[in-house]
Design brief:
This protein has 756 residues and is mainly β. It contains nine helices and 43 strands. The chain starts with a helix and ends in a 38-residue tail after the last helix. Potential negative modulator of chondrocyte differentiation. Inhibits collagen fibrillogenesis in vitro. May influence chondrocyte's differentiation by acting on its cellular collagenous microenvironment.
């Protein structure tokens, strides 16, 4: 009877899946690290040009990020049928061949972010029937072909943010029956076909912020009837009305923040009856009507709008009081109410004619923007004819003459044009008043036009312009009056021109400038006065120039600066003095500079604001113990990978770190490194630090190489001690395949991003 019982129990004692046999476990590519217990293989930053051959067949997680694969060939992973997580970030991938992933029927996560993909062949993703999450963020995708995602029936999250998409065709996501979150932010989308989102019945969250949408694509959005969260902030909308056709019965949260909204129609959201939160922050609304059909609206966000609390605001206040909708925002005028919070006012506080409000009406008229000079009045519904060789779409209010070989800026576009695309033509000179009659223009594209000069007043009359694209031209400077006439310009793109210095005199005409892009020019220094007049600047991109110094006071006028990118320049030291007086700075990019050493207090001026610091690929050989002093309170990520560090002091002051990357450094694991080993042991973070010396420790993780440090003085007394103050991450953050610890959500327990 005992033998019978053993036979019956035997199947329960055997592992459920295939076993990793001893002989198989010994096979591991020379450039990789194999964890035989967890079946994880890591070959990060090894300059590999193809997928290694000798990876154990039973591998479940494969990390190849930071290599030079360039092309993923057909059936590249066919010998790894048990893979569940595949990380191919930062591999310079330019092409994924058809059938590259065939045989990976168990794969749950595929990460192709931060590569150089410009397109995906029709069958590139075949064979991934179990895939739950696909990361394509940070590529150069310009178009999506219907059917590209047709084989991904189990996919829950698709991330296409930070690409170059301008248009979504009908049935672009056909086959994604279970997709719950679609991320399309930070593209150049201006048009969505009416059926672009058809065939996505499970979609709950859609991210479309930071695009070029000129109007709410209501017809396209209404295909996704199950949407709960819709993010469309940072788009140049000027108006939303019922005619936009937005009908989303399940929608709970709608973000339309930081756009160009000047008016809302009362029934704009009437077919979204379950809307709970409406975010309209940072627009140009001076008044707002009571919104109809929103019986469940709980919160209305209005901060950053020039609200006029005169007589015309009484219906809004009465509606807010009647419906008990919570609101924020403050009055811009009249004078006696300037700065008053909207939710503290009663309708009786607002003056109407007969209450002495006549002066207020005159004040309002002076504060509203006047029609730009040179903009003719439109005849009733009569649009100017479209120039030859151009296309003018009246419905979307877009006009374009892309790639037509034009030798001069054409004229005669419809007066209501909001987006004008003149890319890839050839006019070396943009003359004064080059765009007459376009007072409603919001976005102007002049990339790849061979432009060498903007005459003074070239933008006269463009009072509504927010986005100006002058990338990839021949500009070496801008005259003081070159940008006059566009006072609302917020985003200026000047990448890949010939600038030798920041065009500070021209920028003085742009009081609303939010983001300045000067990457890949020939700027060699920043001096006081370069940013005078740009008090509203939040993002400054100077990557890939020749900057050798940033003088104290050069950044001073931009006190609201949040992002500063100085990577890929010629800085030999951190410009500490220039970073004084930037209390809002969140992100500093210094990677790719020949820094070599960091001295004490290098980042002290930003101690109470900085969250993300990039110092990777900077030739760093030495970091002083006090280099990061003062950065503890808010720093979340620290990038030190691909340097020449043999030693690094412990960093106990960085108590809130969620990500630290030390990979690609030749650490010498001797007693000098013991404090770092102890500190890392007290963190539940994946840091990527490995020993390069002495020979007996080569390839071991610094964090786990306890045997290397056992002979060090004081080891026995403190070996169990963890560094106090380091924030403990949940155990699930240690899962393989995550970006160090930047795991939102955790990919080991759930490969699908949670949809809130």
């Amino acid at each position: 009877s005992q033998s019978v019982s053993l036979v019956l129990l035997l199947p329960l004692l055997l592992p459920l899946g295939p076993t990793w046999h001893h002989a198989t476990a010994q096979r591991c590519p020379q450039t990789c690290i194999c964890d035989n217990v967890r079946r994880h293989v890591s070959c990060r930053h090894q300059n590999l040009t193809e997928v290694p051959n000798a990876i154990p067949e039973l591998t479940q997680r494969l990390d190849l990020q930071g290599n030079m694969l360039k092309v993923i060939s057909p059936a590249a992973f066919q010998d790894l049928p048990y893979l569940t997580h595949l990380d191919l970030r930062h591999c310079q991938v330019e092409l994924v061949a058809e059938g590259s992933f065939r045989g990976l029927g168990r794969l749950l996560l595929l990460n192709l972010a931060s590569n150089r993909l410009t397109m995906l062949p029709q069958e590139a993703l075949d064979g991934l029937g179990s895939l739950r999450r696909l990361e394509l963020e940070g590529n150069m995708l310009e178009e999506l072909r219907p059917g590209t995602f047709g084989a991904l029936g189990a996919l829950a999250t698709l991330n296409l943010a930070h690409n170059a998409l301008v248009y979504l065709p009908a049935m672009a996501f056909q086959g994604l029956m279970r997709a719950r979150w679609l991320q399309l932010s930070h593209n150049a989308l201006s048009v969505l076909a009416p059926e672009a989102l058809a065939g996505m019945p499970a979609l709950r969250r859609l991210s479309l912020h930071h695009n070029e949408l000129q109007a709410v694509p209501g017809v396209a959005l209404s295909q996704a009837q199950g949407l709960v969260h819709l993010e469309m902030g940072h788009n140049p909308f000027t108006y939303v009305g019922e005619e936009d056709g937005l009908a989303l019965p399940s929608l709970r949260e709608l973000m339309l923040d930081h756009g160009a909204l000047q008016a809302l129609e009362p029934r704009a959201f009437a077919r979204c009856p379950h809307l709970h939160t409406l975010d309209l922050r940072g627009n140009q609304l001076d008044t707002l009507p009571p919104l109809q059909g929103l019986g469940q609206l709980h919160r209305l966000r209005l901060q950053g709008n020039p609200l006029w609390c005169g007589c015309q605001a009484r219906p809004l206040l009465e509606w807010l009081a009647r419906t008990r909708v919570r609101s924020d925002g403050a009055c811009r005028g009249p004078r006696h109410l300037r700065g008053e919070a909207l939710d503290t006012l009663r309708p009786s506080d607002l003056r109407c004619p007969g209450d002495g409000a006549e002066d207020e009406e005159e004040e309002l008229a002076t504060m509203r923007p006047r029609a730009p000079l040179g903009v003719p009045k439109e005849d009733d519904g009569v649009a100017k004819p479209c120039p030859r060789a151009c296309v003018c779409a009246s419905e979307s209010r877009h006009s374009g003459c892309e790639g037509q070989g034009l030798r001069a800026v054409p004229r005669g576009f419809p007066n209501d044009t909001q987006l004008l695309d003149l890319r890839q033509n050839h006019f070396p000179l943009v003359p004064r008043a080059a765009f007459p009659g376009l007072g409603h223009l919001v976005s102007l594209h002049l990339q790849h036009c061979g432009i060498a000069e903007l005459e003074a007043g070239a933008l006269v009359g463009l009072g509504s312009l927010i986005y100006l694209y002058l990338s990839d031209n021949q500009l070496s400077g801008l005259g003081a009056a070159a940008l006059e006439g566009a006072p609302r310009l917020g985003y200026l793109y000047l990448e890949r021109n010939r600038f030798r210095r920041v065009p500070g005199a021209a920028l003085r005409a742009l009081p609303s400038l939010f983001s300045l892009h000067l990457q890949d020019n020939a700027v060699d220094h920043l001096a006081p006065g370069d940013l005078a007049g740009v008090q509203a600047l939040r993002w400054l991109y100077l990557s890939g120039n020749r900057i050798t110094q940033v003088l104290p006071g050069a950044l001073g006028p931009a006190r609201e600066l949040e992002k500063l990118h100085l990577d890929r320049n010629q800085l030999r030291k951190v410009p500490t003095g220039a970073l004084e007086g930037l209390p809002a700075l969140l992100e500093l990019q210094l990677s790719g500079n020949p820094l070599r050493a960091l001295h004490d207090g290098a980042f002290r001026p930003m101690g109470w604001s900085l969250q993300h610091l990039f110092l990777n690929s900077s030739g760093l050989e030495q970091i002083s113990p006090g280099a990061f002093s003062g950065l503890g309170p808010r720093l979340q990520s620290l990038h030190l990978q691909k340097n020449q560090l043999q030693a690094l002091p412990a960093l106990p002051g960085l108590s809130q770190l969620e990500l630290i990357d030390l990979s690609g450094n030749p650490f010498r694991c001797d007693c000098q490194l013991l404090p770092l080993h102890r500190w890392l042991t007290g963190l539940n973070l994946r840091v990527g630090a490995t020993c390069a010396a002495p020979p007996r420790a080569r390839g071991q993780r610094v964090k786990a190489a306890a045997a290397v440090f056992e002979a060090c003085p004081g080891w026995a007394a403190r070996k169990a001690k963890r560094t106090p103050g380091a924030r403990r991450s949940p155990m699930k953050r240690r899962r393989w395949g995550a970006d160090k610890v930047h795991v939102v959500p955790d990919l080991g327990n759930d490969p699908v991003a949670s949809v809130q």
